[in-house]
Design a protein that fits this description.
mainly alpha; elongated
């Protein structure tokens, strides 16, 4: 499932309409409509605001976060970043 599909599904699960998301997070209505159709994307800044406020479980938020970064950075780059983070965490411990 693509990021936009997961995000739209999450919006529907919590009862957030396109108008609510547009108004609450100051996202252009036309841009949001295209996002709902899979054309274009929302900004990382908007995503960060949304992910902090959307009432989902931590695991659901993690899935959305992983998906947005995998799609924006590419799978290989994302895996390298996670590996580096894990190595640094082990060193710190």
């Amino acid at each position: 499932m693509e990021f936009y599909e997961l995000m739209v599904k999450a919006f529907n699960e919590v009862g957030w309409s396109q108008n609510y998301v547009s108004r609450e997070f100051n996202i252009n209505r036309g841009l949001l409509h295209r996002f709902y159709k899979g054309i274009g994307s929302i900004s990382r800044e908007n995503f960060k605001e949304i992910i902090y406020q959307i009432p989902l479980s931590l695991s659901e938020k993690k899935i959305l976060t992983e998906k947005v970064y995998k799609e924006s950075l590419g799978g290989d780059t994302y895996r390298r970043i996670i590996h580096i983070r894990n190595v640094l965490k082990e060193i710190a411990d």
